[in-house]
Amino acid sequence: MQATRKLWTWLAVICALSFAALGWVGTEIYVSAPPIPKQVVSSKGTEIFAEGAVMRGQESWLAAGGQQLGSVWGHGSYLAPDWSADWLHREAVALREIWAQQTHGTGYAGLQLGQQAALDARLKEEMRRNTHDAATNVITLSAERAEAVQQVAGHYIGLFGDDASLAALREQYAMLPATLKDVADRKSLAAFFFWSAWSATTDRPGEAGLSYTSNWPHEPLVGNTPTAGTGIWSIASVILMLGAIIAMVFFHGRHAEEGDPTPPKADPLFSLKPTPSMLATRKYFFVVIALILAQVGMGVLTAHYAVEGTALFGIPIAQILPFTVSRTIHTQFAVLWIATAWLATGLYIAPAISGREPKFQKLGVNLLFYALLFIVAGSTITGWLGTLQGLGNEYAFWIGNQGLEFTSMGRVWQILLFVGLLIWVTLLGRGLWPALKTPSESRGLIAMVFLSALCIGGFYATSLTWGRQTHYAMIEYWRWWLVHLWVEGFFEVFATAVIALLFSRLGLIRAATANSAIVLETIVFLFGGILGTLHHLYFTGTPTSVIAIGAMFSALEVVPMALIGVEAWRNYQRSKAALWVAAYKWPILCFIAVGFWNVVGAGLLGFSINTPIALYYMQGMNMTAAHGHAALFGVYGMLGIGLMLFCLRGLYPRAAWSDKLLGWTFWSVNIGLAMMVFMSLVPAGIAQAWASITHGVWFARSPEFVHSTMIERFVWLRVPGDVVFAFGTLFLALFAFKLLGARQAKPATGRAQQQAV
C-alpha cells in the first residue's frame, strides 16, 4: 500500500512538472513564432500584400478545407501539395528565371554551369535574407523577387478559382473549380501561402542558416537542409531510447509481477444483471458500429480520389461529396466512434463496479446519447453544406468545417461536445462514487478510471483555445494538445485502467498487483507522452528547443512498448485460464491485437518517423499515414471494439452471441489493416521519402510524383486490404444486427445489482 502511495505521488509530480514545461514551451512558441507582417512591399514601394491579408488568407484556406486539402508546414492531407513547399519551389524557380533573362537574355536552362552556379548562390542569399522590419512590421522584397511573388500568386489565384488552364491540375489535387468563390479570399490565400514559405526559408533574426521552421521543407535551391541540431538530437534520442529500454527490461526482471491468481471455477459476472442505465448504453454501441461503417465508406472514397480526383469510376460524385468532405468525415468519425465506444464503456461499468444505480442515471445516459447524436449529425451536415456552398470564413469557423485535421467541427459544436463530456464525467463519477469511498483492493484502479475520465472531459477544453485570428503556429500547438494528449494520452490511460479493472473483476489478475502496475504504467507513459507531444511541432514555426525536448521525450514514449509483447502474451494465457473465460475470447483477443499494433503501429512505424532527422524528410508523406492508420485503428480502434464487445457480452443473452461472426470480424479487420499498411502505405511512403531526400519535399508531393505510375500502383494495392478490412466491418454489423433480434435482458433493481456484484 505504501509503495502504491509513493507511485501516486510520483505520478502527480511528473504530471505537474511536465505540464509546466509544456506550458513554458507554449510561451516560447508565442514569442518566437514567425511575425505576421502588416504589409509586404517591393523595394520600389509597391504594395504586394495589404494589411490583414495573411490572416485573412489563413482563414480562407481553413474555410476551403484547410488541412483536408493539402498541408502547410507538413500538417494536413497528402494528395494536394504541401503549399509551403510548393510556393517556395515555384518562387525560387521564378526568381531564378527572371534573373537569367535580365542578366543573360535567356532562360536558366540555357546557361553555362558557371553562370547557373552564380545564380544559385545569389538565389540562396536573396531567399534567406530577412528583410522584415520589426519596427514597422513590414517585409520588403527586391523588385525581382516581388515580380516572382506576383507570378506565383497569380497561379494560386487561378488554381483556387476557375481558371480553365488549371483544370487538369485541379483534378490531380482532387479540387473543384472555384474552391474559393471570393476573389479577395483567393488573393489573401496567396498572401498566406507566401508567408508560410517565407517563414520556412528566411533566417531567424540573429541566426545564419536557420529559418523559422528549422529549414523545413527540404529545398536544396534555397539552402533548406537539416540543421546540426536536427541530426544531433536525433542521435541522442536513439541512444536515450535504447538505454531506457535496457533499464526498463532490467527493472521488470528484478521486480517481476506476482503471478496471476487461480481463476474462479465459474464466471464471476455470469449472474450480473444489468441495471436500467447499463441497458441504456446498448444504443451507443450500435451507433458506434454505424459510424465505423460510415468511416470505412468515406475512407474508400477518399483513397480512390488519389487516382481519379473528382470522380468514382467516372461518376462525378465530387460534386456532392468532394475530397475535402469525404476526408473530413473519415478522420472525424474515427475519433468520434472510438470516443463513443469508450464513453459508453464507462457508463456501463460504473453501476456494475459500485453496485448501485444512482437516481435518474438512466435519464442522464439517454439524454447524453441524444445530445451526442445531435452533435455528430449536426456538425457533419453543417460542415458538408458549408464546404459545398462556400459560406465563408466566419461560418466555417463557428458552424461549418474549421479545416483542422481531427478537430474540424465548428466552434459551436466543439462547445456543445465539451459540455457533453462534462455531463459524461458527472454521470460516471456519480456511478463510481460508492466504490470510490469504500475501501477495497480495487479502489486505486477505480480512482484511475475516474481521474482519466476527468482529464478526458477537461482537456477537451483545449479545442476552445484558438480563435479565427490566432497565429497558425499557436493553432498547431493547441491542436496537438487535443489530438495527442486527449486522444493518444488520457483516453489510453482510461482504457488501460478499465481493462485492468475488468480483468480483476473476472479474477484473472490480482487487484493489488493491478493497482500498482497501472499507476506505474501511467507514470512511464505520461513521462514521455506529455512532452512527447512536441514531436508533432518540430517544424511548425517553433524555436529549436522544441526539437531538443520533443526528440528526447518522444523517444521515451517507445520504452513501454518493449514490454507490451509480454503483456499481450500474458493476456493470451489468461484467455486459456479456465473454460468459462472462452466467453470473453474475442474481447481479450482484441486487447491482444492492441498489443501487437502498439508495437508495430505506434512503436515501429511511429519511431520510424519520430526522430527529427527522419521527420524532416518524411513529414507530410505516406509513412505518416501508415503510422496513423496502424496506430489509430490498430491500437485505439481495437481497444474500442474490445471494450464494446465486453459490454455487449453482459447486455445480451449468451445464446445470441455469434463467435463465428466475431472471428471473421477480428481476423478480417486485422489482416486487412496489415495488408493496407504494408502493401500500399509503407511502400508509397518509402518512395516519397526517397524523392524528398533526393529532390525536395515539393517533388515528393508534386502531381508528377504522386500521380506517377509507381505511386498509383501502390494506391491500387490498397484495394485487396481495403476489401478484406471492409468485409470485417460488415461482419461486425451483421453480428450487431443479430443481437438486435435477440431477447433482451430485464433490468435489475439496485439491490439485485448490488447482490450480483
Question: Strands, helices and their partners?
Answer:
Layout: H1 2-32, E1 39-42, E2 47-49, H2 53-63, E3 71-72, E4 75-76, H3 83-104, H4 113-128, E5 132-133, E6 138-141, H5 143-159, H6 167-173, H7 183-201, H8 228-254, H9 276-280, H10 282-304, H11 323-354, H12 361-389, H13 393-398, H14 411-436, H15 443-459, H16 472-505, H17 511-532, H18 545-557, H19 564-575, H20 585-608, H21 612-618, H22 622-651, H23 659-694, H24 697-700, H25 703-706, H26 709-716, H27 718-740, H28 750-756
Parallel strand pairs: 1-6
Antiparallel strand pairs: 1-2, 3-4, 5-6
Task: Provide keyphrases for this structure.
757 residues; mainly alpha; Cytochrome C Oxidase, Chain A; 2 domains; four-stranded mixed beta sheet; two-stranded antiparallel sheet; 68% helix; 2% strand; disordered C terminus
Walk me through what this model shows.
The protein is mainly α. The protein folds into 2 domains: 193 residues, no CATH class; 527 residues, Cytochrome C Oxidase, Chain A (Up-down Bundle). The protein is 68% helix and 2% strand. It contains 28 helices and 6 strands. It has a 4-stranded mixed β-sheet. The protein has a two-stranded antiparallel sheet with strand order 3-4. A hairpin with a 4-residue loop joins strand 1 and strand 2. Helix 16 packs parallel to helix 22. It is globular, with a radius of gyration of 27 Å.
- Helix fraction by DSSP (H/I, runs of at least 4): 55-70%
Named at the architecture level, the CATH assignment of the largest domain is: Up-down Bundle
Model regions low in confidence, pLDDT < 50 over at least 5 residues: 750-757
* Count of discrete domains: 2
- Class by helix and strand content? mainly alpha
Average residue pLDDT: 90
**Ends apart, CA distance between termini:** 24 Å
Q: List the strand order in the largest sheet.
A: 2-1-6-5
Identify the CATH class of the largest domain.
Mainly Alpha
Kindly report the name of the CATH homologous superfamily of the largest domain. Answer: Cytochrome c oxidase-like, subunit I domain
Number of strands: 6
CATH topology of the largest domain: Cytochrome C Oxidase, Chain A
Name the shape in a single word.
globular
Q: Largest beta sheet, briefly?
A: 4 strands, mixed
Give the helix tally: 28
How much of the sequence lies in strands comes to under 5%
Radius of gyration: 27 Å
